Amino acid sequence: MEFRKLTDALSVSPQISVQDVPKIKEAGYRAIICNRPDGEGNDQPTFEEIEKAAVEMGMEARYIPIVSGMVRDEDAETFGQAMTELPGPVLAYCRSGTRSTTLWSLSHAKDMETSAILATAKKAGYDMGGVVRRIVNGGKTPTDSPDARFDVVIVGGGAGGISVAASLKSRMRDIEIALIDPADIHYYQPGWTMVGAGVFDPATTARTMGSLIPKGVHWIKAAVAAFEPHDNAVVLDGCRVVKYDRLIVCPGLKLDWHAVEGLVDTLGKNGVTSNYRYDLAPYTWQLVQKLKSGKAIFTQPPMPIKCAGAPQKAMYLSADHWHREEVLKNIDVQFMNAGGVLFGVKDYVPALMEYVKKYDATLNFFHNLVAIDGEAKTATFEVKEPDQERRTVEVEFDMIHVCPPQTAPDFIRVSPLADAAGWVDVDQITLRHKSFDNIWSLGDVMNAPNAKTAAAARMQAPVVAANVTADILGGSPQGAYNGYGSCPLTVERGKIVLAEFGYGGAIMPILPTWLIDGKKPTRAAWILKEMLLPPVYWSAMLKGREWMAKPEKITGEGAVSA
């Protein structure tokens, strides 16, 4: 028999036998709940037989029979009550364990996040998608009628979501679009590196969400709890249901600050900072200005992360300031990278290495930050070098810039839209979902093998808009995404190595090399980053103006033409 652990208090299992009861006792369980009605199968023992064996072993037993597919709201309440009354840990069983898991899920609907319930059940091997609306509704059966319906529903009001909404509206003015996002503020996140270097004022990177939603697009200010793609429905917190003809998913990714032990407790103090948060980027600049000697650490977690160059951008700009202030010789600059290379596209590495040498920075590869003690000013790294024993090292610091581990949002990872790694599963050319023909995705949340940058989203939005439009008109996909992404690597104040590349690391410069040679640090690239890209973002990209971002064409059988 198998015990599938849901929590420390409860495990579930398929049908057990009388002979299994001693093994259950030996495994540490103190009570058994039977959720399978007697006589459902010809080979199952009665509850009375199981109860007798349990009592003989000094255990308690409870009978809460559930007809398959008929879990009532009151059954979940009964199950929850039994869990408070019985000594734990408890083993609950039915034919397969699904009914027991369903009862547990519904009984915790009021005290656990929906994504946490779905993830726990999924880890044990059970899919709770069939009762997700009831979970969202606090364990109660909701009405089946939708609260609203739209031609297109867009999940996520970041760079990708607003851009694709605007691009769609520019193509089809009469289309009914809803954009779902609970945030009040929209951020220009590429600017936070510059905030952390004292170049941008943080206020210039933020605008109200309401001011950016395209005219004619309905803004649903709510969080998504779950997806029901087979029913063309998005379930919101509070169990409101929004139906769609076509769905675009682009909620960004999750910064998992809690994945590093002790990090949350010390962020924004004790010399611990990060340009990955709006409120912390100014603290980075404060620390950089204040530091005159000591050790400065810059970390990079395992991929994927948004803007893979951002961790080292912080290092370069900080070291450049110390160089200009003539204190760099007193500062030990350390770059701790969980990966094995400085940058994933090798063509740009030589130019970057010149600055690593200039700033006398030490590169520590295969070093992943796992814990931090802010008061003691120590950081612990797990080191996993090839063909070497795994080990941990503790490093002292005076300042540490942390890039947090990053994953798809919880409600994406546990949804039917996700691949095995938790990202939305799309065709990398059309950005259409591989399993659901009326769903597309763009931005950081989908699994195409491209860099997760705003520049990538700028190219993806017209592709998705073109393909959704073609689908509405009854045609085949028209737009092709070539994997383009851009990373302006700020190697010093006034110069940038402008990395532009597509799938497979292919170099893809948009501007002519006589203007900006991306393999070299240039002043022109800095002007682009500082002066031109912000207005392009606010006034072009988010307005559906596809300047230098027209999608490539699919000419037939997956062929792509410029």
Automatic annotation (TrEMBL):
Its cofactor is FAD. The keyword Cell cycle does not apply. CDD domains: PTP-bact (cd14503). Residues 150-265 form the FAD/NAD(P)-binding domain. Keywords: FAD, Flavoprotein, Oxidoreductase, Quinone, Transit peptide. It holds the Pfam family BLH_phosphatase. Residues 2-109 form the Beta-lactamase hydrolase-like protein phosphatase-like domain. One of its GO terms (molecular function) is FAD binding. GO terms for biological process: sulfide oxidation, using sulfide:quinone oxidoreductase. PANTHER family: SULFIDE:QUINONE OXIDOREDUCTASE, SULFIDE:QUINONE OXIDOREDUCTASE, MITOCHONDRIAL. This is Sulfide:quinone oxidoreductase. It comes from Tropicimonas isoalkanivorans.
